[in-house]
């Protein structure tokens, strides 16, 4: 039955299982308390089971309409439906056994006997109704959990995109400001090279999905391109060191996660120092994590803080959104001068 939904299939299987069980129990009861042979009782039980199946299908239809109502309404309507089913089954069996196909040896109709059968059927019907209501509740919880998961996912994607787009305008402003400085210094050739490199960098970063995770080697290439732009500006004052072993190059990281850290080293290390300054990007494997270090050895003219700026908060927020408590960013001022930033995140390998 591929055209039937899984939930509808579950409801039909529940009805079938219920009436198979009920047929078996009533047949055993008849064998114990009645002298009539099974070939007389059996067909009547099957007809009653068929009628009861129709009643259950009607109840399924009615209860499905109550999914948006409160749990109290479910219970009240379920109990009322079970009572109605018990009365209907009793009247149907009585009509069949006394009018349509009278059983031999039946005595006069007594209300006490009918009341007893109503109670018997009520027990079965309450059991089926309670089970089906529990199934409906389970489905509703699943729907709510799926809805919450989807909403959480959408909120997470929006947060990642907002954090990512917070980096890009800041980077563009600084780079364009550097190009403007080169033009004012009449270093037009350098400004042209910087513009071409900027164009390549923008194409590489802005075309991608803000929510994506990329292999570490791609992130390193983006930072090489960015540092290449800045080397045009700083010329002989900037030295770049990259040490990324092959064992961690495919580790997935958020795109541009290193950008604020490298930019921080440039702004507060290279810009504020008159001597040759090195910016090092290193990575190493630490158990099930990868450790990425960005540090500079610039001796700044202005004392540096321990790293509470917007860019570093952005990195922490993005790591938290992607990896939760499994990823951290720690920063410190190096005793010999410069700044040390260290990202630690779980290793997730690109497929």
Describe the structure.
With 351 residues, this protein is α+β, with helices and mostly antiparallel strands. Helix content is 64%, strand content 13%.
What is the topology, as strand order, of the major beta sheet?
2-4-5-7-6
Rg from C-alpha positions? 37 Å
Uncertain runs: none
Shape: rod-shaped
* String of helices and strands: HHHHHEHEEHEEHEE
Secondary structure: number of strands: 7
Into which percentage range does the β-strand content fall? 5-15%
The biggest sheet amounts to:
5 strands, mixed
Q: What's the N-to-C terminus distance? A: 37 Å
Structural category? alpha+beta
How would you summarize this macromolecular structure in one to three sentences?
The chain has eight helices and seven strands; from the N terminus they run αααααβαββαββαββ. The protein has 351 residues and is of the alpha+beta class.
């Amino acid at each position: 039955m591929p055209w039937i939904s899984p939930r509808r299939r579950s409801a039909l299987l529940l009805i079938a299982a219920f009436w198979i069980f009920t047929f078996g129990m009533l047949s055993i009861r008849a064998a114990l308390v009645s002298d009539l042979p099974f070939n007389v009782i059996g067909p009547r039980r099957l007809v009653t089971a068929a009628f009861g199946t129709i009643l259950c299908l009607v109840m399924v239809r009615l209860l499905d309409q109550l999914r948006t109502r409160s749990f109290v309404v479910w219970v009240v309507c379920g109990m009322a439906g079970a009572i109605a089913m018990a009365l209907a089954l009793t009247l149907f069996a009585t009509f069949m056994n006394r009018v349509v196909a009278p059983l031999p040896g039946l005595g006069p109709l007594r209300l006490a006997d009918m009341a007893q059968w109503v109670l018997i059927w009520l027990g079965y019907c309450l059991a089926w109704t309670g089970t089906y209501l529990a199934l409906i509740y389970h489905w509703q919880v699943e729907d709510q959990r799926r809805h919450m998961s989807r909403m959480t996912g959408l909120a997470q994607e929006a947060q990642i995109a907002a954090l990512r787009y917070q980096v890009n305008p800041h980077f563009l402003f600084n780079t364009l400001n550097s190009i403007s400085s080169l033009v004012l210094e009449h270093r037009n050739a350098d400004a042209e090279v910087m513009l071409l490199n900027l164009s390549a960098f923008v194409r590489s970063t802005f075309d991608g999905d803000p929510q994506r995770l990329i292999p570490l080697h791609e992130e390193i290439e983006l930072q090489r391109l960015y540092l290449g732009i800045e080397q045009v500006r700083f010329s002989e004052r900037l030295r770049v060191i990259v040490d990324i072993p092959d064992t961690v190059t495919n580790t997935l990281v958020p795109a541009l996660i290193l950008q604020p850290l490298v930019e921080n080293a440039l702004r507060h290390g290279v810009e504020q120092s008159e001597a040759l300054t090195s910016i090092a990007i290193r990575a190493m494997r630490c158990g099930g994590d990868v450790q990425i270090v960005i540090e500079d050895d610039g001796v700044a003219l202005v004392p540096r803080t321990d790293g509470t700026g917007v860019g570093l908060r952005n990195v922490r927020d993005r790591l938290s959104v992607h990896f939760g408590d499994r990823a951290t960013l720690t920063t410190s001022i190096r005793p010999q001068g410069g700044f040390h930033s260290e990202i630690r995140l779980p290793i997730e390998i690109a497929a």
